[in-house]
Amino acid sequence: MKRNFEDDKEKMVVVEGSYAVADAVKACRPNVISAYPITPQTHIVEDLSQFIADGEIPNCEYLNVESEFSAISALVGSSAAGARSYSATTSQGLELMHEVLFNVAGMRLPVVMTVVNRAVSAPINIWNDQQDSISQRDTGWIQLHAEDTQEAADMTAQAFKIAEDPDVMLPVLACMDGFILSHVYEPVILLDEDLVAEYLPPFEPKFKLDPKNPKTFGAFADPHSYTEFRFLQQQAMNKALKTIEDAADEFYDLFGRHYGGLIDTYETEDADIILMAMGSIVGTIKDVVDKLRAQGVKVGLLKVRSFRPFPAEAIKNAIKGAKVVVALDKNISLGLNEGALFTETKGSLYNTNVNIPIIGFMIGHGGRDIPMSTMEAIVDEAKKVIDSGITVESQFTDLKEELL
Amino acid sequence: MKEIRIHGRGGQGSVTAAELLAVAAFADGKFSQAFPAFGVERRGAPVQAFTRINDDPIRLRAQVYEPDYVIVQDPTLLEVVDVESGAKDDGVILINSDFEPEHFDLNTNAKIMTVNATKIALDIIGRPIVNTVLLGAFAGASGLIDPESIKDAVKERFPGKVGEKNAEAIQKAYDMMTEA
Q1: What is the percent of chain A where pLDDT is above 90?
Q2: Checking CA distances to A187, which of A74, A138, A224, A250 falls within 20 to 30 Å?
């Protein structure tokens, strides 16, 4: 992270995380916002609806639709027609969108959607984990994760910039941890609309639906050509690796805040133990790193900001000097007993010359709180791996045996 | 870093109190963070909210387990919640009650203080809404925060007469704690 908090303090206000993101959306001048206003939803679309009612977002249509499926379907049409299109969702709402997410990505529509990460049912649970967005891994959406509310707000502008890049033209899920970030009040700088206008040029897609110049989006592709569409989507993901870095750098030049591009590192240079994670847990880990560093433990943090495209090369370079890597996942692939970050990091290193022990901890499911003591216990387990190798490769954290 | 845990019942404005405290602390030049112990919100159910106040930016996202200050909006919570849980030895537990602190037998080394916030609220605001009153008392008991900042935060959230009445009640509670 690069920013000057003392200078920033003058411009900060204390608002709810959801409000900060809604305000950022407003600054991005969307043309269509769709939302289904029922639990699970977020204050983001509530605040946006207020902005619209107050006339604060000119040239924007707010569609109050009848389901999450409709919310994302409506944006297929609006984005194809050349409108900058936005929605926010969470949990089961995102799962209901699943089918349409493939369509948005396949048609190369640069929709941006904030995901307020929450657990999925059953059992019913409204609290935070990241199973909802991780389960959209293969839909073809770029997926970014924010560590604090300022980053969640700033990421909104970056998301449009990345999505609408002519080399990319892919939709973006901008993720923030439910409640932990969406409901927290903390100081943030609300985005300056003029600066955002400078950062984010108007959306002018090369191809759009226009009655005067008819086109078809998402049409039939038989075995003769379907493969090539998939290849081009993957190629766009590859290009996005650079675009995501550039979008972060350009944002820094204009706004003076940088949260990493694909990844960010904290005290990793000489670290024996590197913890890797996504989202708000990153903040807690930084405090743990400082505490343990003061005790002489050489521990560092690798924050993964982009889960899709997966920054395999950047991760490899960041961890190659460590003696053990710990991947923390607020999700699980049932039947593999691993979280996605763990599986993919391990997999992406297998055929490289970086051969470091990696262990995984699945943590914070369904909103279970993650105190510093839990994180310190995980570091203790990592130390054991340095001394005597891996005994348990991937495991649940803070499991309550008495409830089983 | 100072950590505050507020105990109340759903509908008593514990979350609002935590947020207002964060706004006021930031106005005082500190960094702050406020969030609820997220539950399924039901009127009357025990709820918790947290505020952190620090000279440096706050990164920690865990709940508050070892509070420097505990604020209890409703003394009947003492029968169902261990409000003293984890309270620091040099901490303060501030209870809304017309009893003296000696009345409360809590398993803690933290200092227990009481304020009859319900009476202040009824006398000045006309309703038994004690969250803002307790913030005034907290400012007085802790010396951590300028009561003017709390009043400003409350008046901004509740403009007009409601805010003015609350500000008056906040000052009254602050005075009672500082004069005691």
Answers
A1: 98
A2: A250
CA distances from B30 to A188, A280, A330, B26, B41 (A): 13, 21, 31, 5, 30
Q: Which are the contacts of B174, defined by CB distance < 8 A and separation ≥ 6?
A: B136, B137, B139, B140, B147
Q: How far is CA A291 from CA A285, A296, B59, in A?
A: 10, 9, 13
pLDDT tens readout for residues B63-106: 999 999 999 999 999 999 999 999 999 999 999 999 999 999 99
Residue of A nearest to B25 (CA): A14
Establish how many alpha carbons lie within 13 A of residue A72's alpha carbon, considering only the half-sphere containing its beta carbon.
29
What is the average pLDDT value for chain B, to the nearest integer?
Answer: 95
Q: What is the pLDDT of residues A285-311, one digit of tens each?
A: 999 999 999 999 999 999 999 999 999
- Give residue B180's pLDDT band: very low, low, confident or very high (50, 70, 90): low
Q: What is the token pair recorded at B3?
A: 């950590």
Give the model confidence (pLDDT) of B2-46 as tens digits: 999 999 998 899 999 999 999 999 999 999 999 998 666 677 889
What average pLDDT is seen over chain A? 97
Q: Residues A178, B63, B55, CA angle at the centre, nearest 5°?
A: 100
Query: Chain B interface, mutation test: which of A186, A287, A368, most B Cβ atoms within 10 Å?
Result: A186
Nearest Cβ partner for A126 among B35, B40, B65: B40
Task: Yes or no: say if A277 and A301 are a contact pair by the CB < 8 Å rule.
Answer: yes
Report in angstroms the alpha-carbon separations of B171 from B116, B127, B175, B177: 14, 17, 6, 10
Cα separation, A83 vs B27, in Å, equals 40
Q: Which of A179, A185, A283 sits opposite B19 (nearest CB)?
A: A185
Apex A275 CA angle, A18 and A403, nearest 5:
75
For residue B90, count other CB atoms closer than 10 A to its CB.
9
Q: What is the pLDDT of residue A38?
A: 77
ipTM value for the complex: 0.95
As a whole number of angstroms, the distance between CA B128 and CA B74 comes to 11
Closest chain B C-alpha to A346 CA, distance in angstroms: 27
CB-CB under 8 Å, B38 with A367: yes
What span, in angstroms and rounded, lies between the C-alpha atoms of A135 and A173? 12
> For residue B43, which amino acid is it?
R
**Most B-contacting residue of A16, A185, A398 (CB-CB within 10 A), to test interface:** A185
Q: Residue B42: what pLDDT?
A: 73
Q: What is the mean pLDDT of residues A345-351?
A: 97
Instruction: Determine whether the interchain pair A148/B59 forms a contact, defined as Cβ–Cβ distance below 8 Å.
Output: yes
Pairing of strands B46-54, B2-9: antiparallel
What are the CA-CA distances from residue B154 to residues A133, A162, A368, B167 (Å)?
Answer: 37, 40, 32, 7
Residue B64, min C-alpha distance to chain A (Å) = 9
pLDDT for B41 equals 64
Facing B32 at nearest CB: one of A126, A180, A187: A187
Token readout for A37 is 């206003």
